[in-house]
Amino acid sequence: MLSRVAPWLASRKDVPDTPGLSVRTLDGTDTAALRLLAQQDPVTNVFILAHLRAAGTAAPTSGGAGVIGVFDDGVLVGACWAGANLVPVQLDPELAGAVAEVANRSGRRYASAFGPAESVLALHAELVELGHRAHEVRAEQPLMTIEDPPSIPANPGLALGNLADFDRILPACAAMFEEEVGYSPFLGGREFYSRRVEGLIRQGHSLVHLNSAGEVVFKAELGAVTADVTQIQGVWMNPLYRGQGLSAGYMAAVVEQARKVAPVTSLYVNGFNLRARATYERVGFRQVGTFATILF
Length: 296
Fold this sequence. Notes:
Layout: E1 3-4, H1 7-11, E2 21-25, H2 31-38, H3 46-55, E3 66-72, E4 75-82, E5 85-89, H4 96-105, E6 112-116, H5 117-129, E7 136-146, E8 159-160, H6 166-181, H7 191-202, E9 206-210, E10 216-225, E11 229-237, H8 247-258, E12 264-268, H9 274-283, E13 286-295
Parallel strand pairs: 5-6, 11-12
Antiparallel strand pairs: 1-2, 2-3, 3-4, 4-5, 6-13, 7-12, 7-13, 8-9, 9-10, 10-11
Helix pairs in contact: 4-5, 6-7, 8-9
């Protein structure tokens, strides 16, 4: 059912004319509109475009995740994925309050919010007012892309992950996750995260180098994939091999693999991680925007 924007929106002085605005969860009939909205910026919106490519619909998933849409006189003007995470899609920061209220009413517990910095930070500010508290705010994460071959030679040891090596790859993925967010991905049980890692391997989106002893030296994933853009996620180097200048060669190899899938390769990185940023720039990545991540 189409619900009117909460009184919050109508009272906002920075939203001058709001009588035609409404908010609701999208359904299958909104698929084309959501895809058109996201394609305004296929790099920034690769997450939702990859979801649409896989699911084929904007309707809620069987697990209850869905997309909150903001309409202006019936035209979709902004959206936000609301599943385990919140991911704004072309969402004007001034409309973040309306989306936050719908997200809050769902009763879902969100692990994070990530995406364009202005939208995510506005969403966070509104969620704070509704009682949500973050344990970390990463307000500046350069969004970087490369469209040409890497600037340096690729490490030939990197290859597609193999299901036969699942028991070696999964602990490396979990170690990366824990380093990045500060807690184990197995806190709620191993099944969900294990299925995620297995799915990436099956899709050919897991990239890994195992040494002669079968230990993971380096790994990364193509975490979101469309015909136009891939987004690299989960970059991790075994601590035993850090500080040896190997990262750039591995990242060049990741880019070579990603370019077989789509012409543009993207990633986002914590602004404070100067070493990683320098590595990506050495490979040929350049900043095209700024993301933010809120960890709840």
